[in-house]
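dumping this here so i dont lose it
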């Protein structure tokens, strides 16, 4: 699947869920394959609504069984690292958080991951839409367990 095809697929999933995007948001859906080239297995489709020096809000679209690999958000310039809350809008997400174990989230359920905490997540059989609310996002600085991953 090309990044363009993934972008269209993600936009269609959001449309079907009644989540309206502006034309600019639709065109700028980020396709993150983490440099591995296995998007349908490892990756995310991301709509960034806002990312300021204080707050960030995103929509994550995940295809069936697609996963975001284990990573953490380290301290940055005197801040403790990104704290993020995942709220499932559609589908199911299997979240693994270091120190908390495995957490299954369904529609309307949420979980907050503390700063600098290893975590990973995977969509269930039907894929998922997840709203992410967090402190400022510095995605390029995320630290992945797999050193072969490039963000």
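and the seq i came up w/
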């Amino acid at each position: 699947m090309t990044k363009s095809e993934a972008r269209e697929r993600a936009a269609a999933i959001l449309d079907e869920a009644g989540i309206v995007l502006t034309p600019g948001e639709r065109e700028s859906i980020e396709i993150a394959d983490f440099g591995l080239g296995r998007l349908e297995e490892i990756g995310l489709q991301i709509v960034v609504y806002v990312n300021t020096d204080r707050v960030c809000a995103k929509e994550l679209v995940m295809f069936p069984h697609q996963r975001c690999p284990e990573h953490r958000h380290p301290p940055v310039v005197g801040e403790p690292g990104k704290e993020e809350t995942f709220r499932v809008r559609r589908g199911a997400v299997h979240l693994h958080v270091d120190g908390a174990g495995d957490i299954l989230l369904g529609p309307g359920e949420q979980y907050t991951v503390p700063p600098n905490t290893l975590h990973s997540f995977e969509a269930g059989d039907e894929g998922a839409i997840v709203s992410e609310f967090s402190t400022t996002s510095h995605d390029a600085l995320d630290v992945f367990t797999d050193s072969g991953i490039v963000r």
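The CA atoms of residues 95 and 103 lie 5 Å apart.
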